[in-house]
Write a structure and sequence with these properties.
The structure is a single chain. By secondary structure, the protein is an alpha+beta fold. Among the domains are: about 60-180, Beta-Lactamase; about 420-575, Histidine kinase-like ATPase, C-terminal domain (Heat Shock Protein 90, 2-Layer Sandwich). It has 14 helices and 17 strands. The chain has helices spanning about 1-75, 75-85, 85-105, 135-145, 185-195, 235-240, 285-320, 320-380, 385-410, 425-440, 460-480, 515-520, 535-545, 570-575; strands at about 110-115, 120, 150-155, 160-170, 170-180, 195-205, 220-225, 255, 260-270, 275-285, 420-425, 445-450, 455-460, 485-495, 500-505, 550-555, 560-565. A hairpin with a 2-residue loop joins β4 (about 160-170) and β5.
């Protein structure tokens, strides 16, 4: 038995274990690749955001420089001092403004040029003048006659955003105004906004020997002009030197205890030349540490879950042999129960057939009793042809009702339906009462409360006659010999506020107890020794076929009243009309 159990466990547990290991490994691999791709996409998003923010910051600063030049170009006193060549007056008027611009807006350069682009006044270095400016932005302003701006590289390796405005006075061009600011602060602002570090570098080929900065040599390929890091990581220097330079996003590189992702963007000057690079650096040390911790936690939970599942499978498979015998016994018992269930179902079917036969017998018995009684009366009244014809007509009507009911029961075996037709209610009720009086030996006193005018309702007269006959029969059985039965037809509102008509039969019997009310319309429930318990069930069925309801309740003055409520049909009013 042990070997057989091992053979069962081995073929199942070994493949399961291998599948579990492969699934966990595949899950970790997918998670790692997804995280790697997500980091790459995140850095690419940061790179694009840094690029857009860099350009937006350049445009905003250029707009601010142009806004500062507008009031200066419109100052008449400054223009006249410029035209007169009075540098002292110019410096006195513009110097304080330049100081405010430098303190508030980081403006570092201010030039006043004549129409030949010759420096009339360098506000930031008044001692230097009379040299000709041939920078791209100045030449473009001269050629186009419009405001220009752009980043330009200074001889000392500084990157300066310059804004140049043609200066006109009294409609004549008198020179050019130029403001400039060094762009080193933009890297700090992007660092604060996006949480990435920026290195702005300039290719050494665009600098002369006088442009070398401290800490660089002529052998260097680039010069760092702006840096939000304390020092340039070695792998960044290698990358800028040509290694993987064509890749926008690199893999993680370890620098000390930190992991960095880098991306390189081209830096173009106002003339469109690629003079250097903007290096976007993202510190992913915490992200990688968090990811590793997540992987370790997921691996631990997966192994624990796998061990639990493995142990559960082991226990289950170990009990297979014992459970097999128990299962076989249960299957045997189930087969026996299934056979018993089929027998019970067959008994229920036979019981249902018996109930249907009882209902048919109950419905046919009432008119047949009337037929027998009226036939006996006809024998006694043989000498009165008129009376005999009346009794024969009643016999024919009872036979027709029985025939119609039998036809309806045959159709009911296929589908429960009934035939509506316009019916005059007063005649239907009076005929049913007369038929009932002739079919019973008690001949109870029956009063009616009907509409004085003709009332046509769209319903099945045969079913309504059977229902009323059953209600009269029940009332007669519970009434005292001198008791009275009241039949009324009145308009009433249903439980769902629909308009309709209520056919009510009241008696003067003992009323309904609580126990009887709970089982009032239950088939085969009866309080009479000779009853079948199907009369009220038939009444309820007739009500349901007419989309109505049947009720029974006690009257305040004694006795009970049973009501068959039928909602108004759209054809009722047409029939009445």
């Amino acid at each position: 038995m042990i070997q057989r159990r091992d053979k069962v466990k081995g073929p199942i547990l070994i493949p399961f274990s291998l599948l579990l290991v492969l699934a966990v490994g595949a899950l970790f691999l997918i998670a790692y690749l997804y995280e790697e791709k997500a980091r790459q996409q995140d850095l690419a998003t940061s790179m694009r955001a840094a690029e857009r923010l860099f350009g937006l910051q350049i445009d905003n600063d250029a707009a601010r420089l142009h806004a500062a030049l507008c009031p200066i170009s419109r100052n008449e006193a400054v223009a006249k001092a410029f035209l007169n060549g009075d540098r002292g007056a110019l410096l006195a008027k513009i110097g304080p403004l330049f100081s405010r611009l430098r303190d508030l807006h980081r403006v570092t350069h201010f030039y006043l040029l004549d129409t030949d682009r010759r420096v009339v006044l360098r506000v930031h270095k008044p001692a230097m003048r009379d040299d000709v400016i041939d920078r791209f932005t100045t030449l473009k302003a001269e050629q186009s006659g419009r405001e220009t701006q752009g980043i330009e590289l200074g001889p000392l390796g500084t990157l300066t955003l310059r804004a140049v405005k043609p200066w006109r006075f009294e409609g004549q061009l008198i020179g050019y105004l130029e403001l400039g600011e060094e762009i080193g602060h933009i890297g700090d602002e992007i660092h604060r906004a996006l949480g990435v570090d920026l290195l702005v570098t300039v290719n050494q080929a665009f600098l002369g020997s006088e442009g070398l900065l401290a800490g660089t040599t002529e052998a260097s390929d680039f010069v760092v002009v702006s840096n939000t890091l304390d020092e340039v990581p070695p792998f960044v220097a290698k990358r800028l030197g040509g290694l993987n330079r064509q890749l926008q996003v690199s893999e993680a590189s370890v620098y000390g205890d930190i992991s960095l992702y880098t991306a390189v963007l081209p830096l173009n000057d106002a003339a469109g030349r690629e003079i250097g690079d903007i290096v976007v650096i993202r510190d992913v040390t915490k992200l990688q540490a968090g990811f590793r911790e997540s992987l370790v936690a997921a691996a631990s939970l997966s192994l624990l879950a796998g061990a639990l599942v493995f142990g559960l499978f082991y226990v289950i498979l170990d009990r297979v042999e014992r459970d097999y015998r128990r299962q076989r016994e249960m299957e045997t018992q189930f087969a026996r129960l299934s056979t018993e269930h089929q027998r019970i179902v067959q008994i229920e079917k036979l019981s249902e057939v018996g109930r249907t036969i009882s209902e048919i017998a109950h419905q046919i018995n009432n008119p047949l009793v009337g037929v027998v009684n009226m036939a006996q009366l006809a024998e006694r009244e043989a000498d009165d042809p008129v009376r005999v014809r009346e009794l024969l007509a009643d016999i024919r009507q009872a036979g027709a009702d029985s025939h119609a009911f039998l036809q309806r029961m045959l159709a009911f075996t296929k589908v429960s339906r009934f035939e509506r037709k316009p019916t005059e209610m007063s005649n239907l009720i009076e005929e049913t009462i007369a038929l009932f009086q002739q079919s019973t030996d008690r001949h109870p006193a029956i009063t009616t409360e009907l509409s004085t005018s003709s009332l046509m309702l769209d319903l099945d007269p045969v079913l309504i006659r059977h229902a009323l006959f059953n209600l009269l029969s029940n009332a007669s059985q519970v009434n005292a010999p001198d008791g009275r039965i009241t039949v009324r037809l009145r308009q009433s509102t249903g439980p769902d506020m629909r308009r309709g008509w209520s056919l009510e039969v009241g008696d003067e019997g003992p009323g309904l107890s609580k126990e009887v009310q709970d089982k009032l319309f239950t088939p085969f429930f009866t309080t009479q020794p000779s009853g079948t318990g199907l009369g009220l069930a038939v009444v309820q069925h007739v009500a349901m076929l007419h989309d109505g309801r049947a009720t029974g309740e006690n009257q305040s003055h004694g006795g009970a009243v049973f009501a068959l409520w039928i909602p108004e049909h759209p054809r009722d009013q047409e029939a009445s009309t």
